[in-house]
DNA sequence: AACACGGGGGC
DNA sequence: GCCCCAGTGTT
C-alpha cells in the first residue's frame, strides 16, 4: 500500500533536520514559514540563526522589526518575516507563548495558510490533516496519473481530497513529512528515480512513461521590466543617505539608496537635469556611473535593470524625509537591504 | 480567479 | 533561459 511504502522509504532515507528531533510548535512553525517556496538547503542556515537568536517565541516577539528583517535578509518574500513577527507577538502576548493546538485555530494566524496549518497540526498535535505542497502535487499527480492543472481551482480541491484520502491516519505528521521528503529527494521534478522507486509497480506515470509531463501546471505569468537608478550619495566624511521602502511594492520595509525609477535607465545628463535638487547641485563634487551596463536582477514577476550612480557631495542635505537616514559607511551592514543592494555594497568594500 | 511577492539552484 | 522550491495574502 502507498502510505506504508512511503513511510518505510522515509525511515531509511530521511534527512537529519533540526526541527524534526522533538517536534515543538514554535520550531515547527518557524521552519514551515521559512520553507514556504524555499528549498531546505537555502532555508536551513536562516533557521539555525533564528533559533540561536530567538530561542523562544517571546524572544522573537520582543525583537525589533529591523532585527528580524536583517536576519531574514536574502531569504526573499519579506512579508513572511513581517507576518512571522506579528504572529510571534500575538502568541507571546495574547496566548502566553502557547500556539493554537489545532488546524482551525492555527490557520487564523498571519502567514499561516492551509499548508502550514496542516503541517503544524499534524506534526506537533497528530491531527489527521493532509499537507499539499509542491512535492505532494508532483507525487500524487504522477502516481495517479492526474492531469488536472495543479494551480486551477479544481486541481487544488482535487489534490487536497486525494491527499486526505491517502493520509496515514495513525501517524499523519510522519506521513506528511514522508511524502514531502519523497517528492524532494526521489520523485523529483527532473530526473525522478523511477528505477528504484518503492511504489513504481502501481504508479501510472511510470507505467505510461509520462513522469516528465506531470504535474500539469497552467501557463506562466508575464514579467514586468523596471529601470532603477540608485543615487549613492557620499559626503567627505564618508556618510551616506539611506531610505526605507515604505510603499506597497517589492522589498517593503527594507532599505535602499535613494532611487529614481524611470521608463528607461537614465543617462548622466538626465540624472543631472532631473534627479538632483538645486541644493544638491551646489555641493556636488563628482558624479560617476559605477556600472557601465545595467545590472539585471530577476524576480519572479519582474526584471530589474539597475544602475548605481556614485554621487560625491561636500555635505548631505540637512532636511531629510522621515523615511531617510544618514549613516556611516560602516553602519550599512546593520540594515536589511535587497540582495541587489548587498551585492553592490560588498563589491565596493571588497 | 488571477496576481504579487525573492532569491537561488538544477538542467 | 526556464522551471521549481515544505505557499500566503490581496485584489
Q: What's the short version?
A:
The protein is of the alpha+beta class and 350 residues long. Helices cover 43% and strands 14% of the residues. Strands 1, 4, 5, 6 and 7 form a 5-stranded mixed sheet that branches. A 3-stranded antiparallel sheet has the order 3-2-8, with no helix packed on it.
Structural overview:
The mean pLDDT is 94. Helix content is 43%, strand content 14%. With 350 residues, the protein is an alpha+beta fold. Strand 6 (295-298) and strand 7 form a beta hairpin. The protein folds into 2 domains: 2-213, Endonuclease III, domain 1, CATH 1.10.340.30; 224-349, Nucleoside Triphosphate Pyrophosphohydrolase (Alpha-Beta Complex), CATH 3.90.79.10. The strands form 2 sheets. Strands 1, 4, 5, 6 and 7 form a 5-stranded mixed sheet that branches. Strands 3-2-8 form a 3-stranded antiparallel sheet, with no helix packed on it. The structure holds a DNA duplex (11 and 11 nucleotides).
Amino acid at each position: 500500500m502507498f502510505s506504508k511504502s512511503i513511510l518505510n522509504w522515509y525511515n531509511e532515507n530521511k534527512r537529519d533536520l533540526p526541527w524534526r528531533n522533538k517536534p515543538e510548535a514554535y520550531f515547527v512553525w518557524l521552519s514551515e514559514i521559512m520553507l514556504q517556496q524555499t528549498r531546505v538547503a537555502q532555508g536551513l542556515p536562516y533557521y539555525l540563526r533564528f533559533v540561536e537568536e530567538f530561542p523562544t517565541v517571546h524572544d522573537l516577539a520582543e525583537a525589533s522589526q529591523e532585527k528580524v528583517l536583517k536576519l531574514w535578509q536574502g531569504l526573499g518574500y519579506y512579508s513572511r518575516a513581517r507576518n512571522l513577527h506579528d504572529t510571534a507577538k500575538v502568541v507571546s502576548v495574547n496566548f502566553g507563548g502557547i500556539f493554537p493546538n489545532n488546524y482551525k485555530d492555527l490557520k487564523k494566524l498571519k502567514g499561516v495558510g492551509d499548508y502550514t496549518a496542516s503541517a503544524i497540526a499534524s506534526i506537533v498535535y497528530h491531527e489527521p490533516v493532509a499537507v499539499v505542497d509542491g512535492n505532494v502535487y508532483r507525487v500524487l499527480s504522477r502516481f495517479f496519473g492526474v492531469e488536472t492543472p495543479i494551480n486551477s481551482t479544481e486541481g487544488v480541491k482535487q489534490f487536497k481530497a486525494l491527499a486526505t484520502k491517502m493520509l496515514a491516519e495513525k501517524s499523519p505528521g510522519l506521513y506528511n513529512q514522508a511524502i514531502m521528503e519523497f517528492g524532494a529527494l526521489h520523485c523529483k521534478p527532473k530526473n525522478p528515480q523511477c528505477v528504484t522507486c518503492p511504489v513504481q509497480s502501481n504508479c501510472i506515470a511510470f507505467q505510461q512513461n509520462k513522469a516528465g509531463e506531470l504535474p500539469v501546471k497552467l501557463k506562466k505569468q508575464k514579467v514586468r521590466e523596471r529601470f532603477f537608478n540608485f543615487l549613492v550619495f557620499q559626503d567627505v566624511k564618508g556618510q551616506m543617505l539611506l531610505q526605507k521602502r515604505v510603499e506597497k511594492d517589492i522589498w517593503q520595509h527594507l532599505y535602499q539608496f535613494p532611487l529614481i525609477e524611470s521608463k528607461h535607465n537614465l543617462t548622466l545628463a538626465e540624472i543631472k537635469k532631473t534627479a538632483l535638487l538645486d541644493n544638491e547641485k551646489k555641493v556636488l563634487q563628482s558624479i560617476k556611473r559605477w556600472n557601465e551596463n545595467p545590472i539585471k536582477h530577476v524576480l519572479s514577476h519582474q526584471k530589474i535593470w539597475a544602475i548605481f550612480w556614485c554621487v560625491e557631495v561636500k555635505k548631505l542635505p540637512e532636511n531629510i524625509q522621515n523615511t531617510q537616514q544618514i549613516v556611516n559607511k560602516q553602519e550599512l551592514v546593520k540594515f536589511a537591504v535587497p540582495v541587489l543592494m548587498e551585492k553592490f555594497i560588498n563589491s565596493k568594500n571588497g
